[in-house]
Each structure stands twice: as structure tokens, then as C-alpha cells.
Amino acid sequence: MRRGIATFTLDEGKCPPWLFQRMVALGRDIVKILIAEYGPDEFVKRMGDPVWFQSLGTVLAFDWNASGLTTILTAALKEAIRFEEKNLGVFICGGKGKTSRNTPDEILTWGDRLGLSDKKTHALIYNSKMSAKVDSALVQDGFQLYHHAFIFSQNGAWTVVQQGMNTGNQTARRYHWSSDKVTDMVCEPHSGISSKLLGKNVLNMVSKGSSKSRDLSVELVEAGYPSLMKEVNILRRHFSRYSNMVSLKAGKEQLTLLDLDRGEFRYHPMVHENFIMNKYLEKILQEVAYQKPENYEKLTALKGVGPKTVRALALVGEIIYGAKPSYEDPARYSFAHGGKDGTPFPVDVKTYDETIEMLKKAVSKTRWNQAEKRKAVTRLEKW
């Protein structure tokens, strides 16, 4: 699997009860077969693959390109395995809206029931919280998270499936994490397929290209609050200067944050923000500087550190020290099965076929009647 994000149209309304009940019933059969065939760890791993996840939703009869597939499929699978989690060795926590906020408590409950050590249970909770923090604070793509599901096996394999909405362009974006792919929680941790819709000027602090910016952010807070605020005040003067120019007509003098050739640096994507002039942000920066986190992951994990704190530190590092972070949508790094135009590489037909064949095999072993099996396979082949 390559890394990235999938984007879908944002739909409204509720899944009709008859469809949800059907998805639960069919989902129960197919999950049992997949786990019996490949084991709980492999099932959890597969849930971290957006194409496989999307294919499973299609098999269970939901719209393949609708945002509701994420929330409804997760809810249906959670209901499908209810009371059989221990036998199957797979556990699904969280969900949509308020339910997502119950994820840590649900993990803790399962940890107690399974007799997991406190260390293992809290590690699972940490991974759940960090994935949400990263996709809301370090990947600033304009999508607000509203769904978070944490799926894990008794052996410790885990997957995160979370989704955000962008009400401006009426799209939803799904983020997948898989424990077998994550080597660094704050450096390209995602698994999956990329979006066709790429955002502009996306502050992408999980990019490999943002490594210097991440390192410098840590150095800035390590230097202490007085030193950090000295740097922040330099930016305040720049923003103040820009505010005095906003009434000028187009084509006249404009803000230049760095003294570079105009052909090289004409516009900064964060120039219109005034987040530096924020008393709450100052309070958070003071607390972060006091804590002196030893690395960027620990900085990100601190309570109160959110998008504005991340942007402020990134901007100080870029404008004053030249440590420019990535402003490219992280979706550009992926394409799980390639693109039909060969961008960024040709379609991986073998992997795509393996995804379809695995689900076809599972469908063939279910107790569904032949008509239902044919419909499921047809939907899968169309997808």
C-alpha cells in the first residue's frame, strides 16, 4: 500500500433502517469468513487500506463514492461483531460525532475485559488520540474531523479510520492509519489512496519535506518563552505592516515577508492570518516552552497544542530561519493502485486484482443466496 488520503462527496440524510440492517447481516458473515481465512491481524491491517475498505463497503451495498460509506460501514461492522468480539479477536471503538469522543473509554473497557497490561492499553489510547491530533493539527487541509474509529486486534495490530468534512466544497476526506505502516507518528504516517481533489497551500507538517520545520519548532520552544516571544514579535511587525497595506489598490506595494527576488517569493500562503495576535496562543506557547518537549511528537501531544500553535511555530521557523515546511497536500504522496494516466505511477493491476479476488472469495463462502452473491460481485467489479 502507498500512502495518502481518499476524498468523497459530502452527502446528507440518514441510512435507511432496511439498508443498515442488511449491511449488518451481510457484514457479519463476511467479517467472520475473512477473519477465519486470514486472521484478525490481517483483517485489521486491511481496514487500513482505503481501497479495500471502499470495496468492502461496495460489497455491502453502500454508495461507493459517498461520505456516508465511511460512517455507515464502520457502524455496521461494529454492530455486526457485537458480543462476538472476543471470539473473533477484533474490536471496533468510536464512530461518528459524539461517539468518536468515547473511543478512549471504549479502548480502556476492552483492555480491562481482555486483561491487557496498562502499558498496552494506554499505548492503544495514545495511538488513537495522536492520529486525531495529527490529522486536525499537523495536516491543515481544511477538513474538520467528525468521525474517528479505532480498530484493533487482541495481538495489538491497530487501524484508524477517520473522516473530515469541508463544508466549503461539500467534500469529505478519509484518513487511514495502519500499525504495520506507521514508523513515525508525525512523519508521513498514513496508509492508503490519494485524493483526486488536492488542496492549495495546505500546511503539511507530516511531510518529509517539513523535517527541518519540525526540528526547528522544537528548538524554538526549548529556547524558552522570552526568546520565543521575541521571534513572534518580529512576525507581529510584519503582520502589522500588511494590515496597513490592505487598502492599497491591486498592483501597488504588497507585503514581502522575506527579502528575496520577486520571482522566487511573491506570496506567502499564510499572509492573511492574524493568529499571532492571540492571547490564548501566547498562553499555550508559554506552557509549551515550560514543558520543553524533547521531540516534535511530544510537542504535538501536549494538551492545548492545536493548529494555531503549529502554524505559529512553523511560520516563525520559516520566515526568520528559512526552515520552510511543506505546503503541498499530503494526498500527492499516494495512489494505492496508481492512476490511469500513469501519475504518479501506472496502475498496480496485480494489487488491485488481489483486493477484488479476496472479497470475491469471501462472498462466495457466505450463506447468502446466489442472487445476492451475484449482486455483490457485480457491485465490486463496477467499483
Uncertain segments are 1-5, 245-266, 333-347
SSE pattern, N- to C-terminal: EHHHHHEHHEEEEEHHHHHHH
Reported for the largest beta sheet, the result is: 5 strands, antiparallel
Helices and strands: which structural class? Answer: alpha+beta
Widest sheet: strand order?
Answer: 1-6-5-4-2
What's the rounded overall pLDDT mean? 82
Shape: elongated
Number of helices: 14
Percent range for β-strand residues? 5-15%
Total DSSP E strands: 7
Radius of gyration using CA atoms only? 23 Å
Concise description?
Helices cover 48% and strands 11% of the residues. With 383 residues, the protein is of the alpha+beta class. The strands form 2 sheets. The chain has a 5-stranded antiparallel β-sheet with strand order 1-6-5-4-2, with helices on both faces. The protein has a two-stranded antiparallel sheet with strand order 3-7.
Helices and strands in order, then pairings?
Layout: E1 5-9, H1 17-38, H2 40-47, H3 50-59, H4 68-80, H5 85-88, E2 90-96, H6 103-114, H7 118-138, E3 139-140, E4 144-153, E5 158-166, E6 171-178, E7 203-204, H8 211-222, H9 225-243, H10 279-291, H11 296-301, H12 307-321, H13 349-364, H14 370-382
Helix pairs in contact: 1-2, 1-4, 3-13, 3-14, 6-7, 8-12, 9-12, 13-14
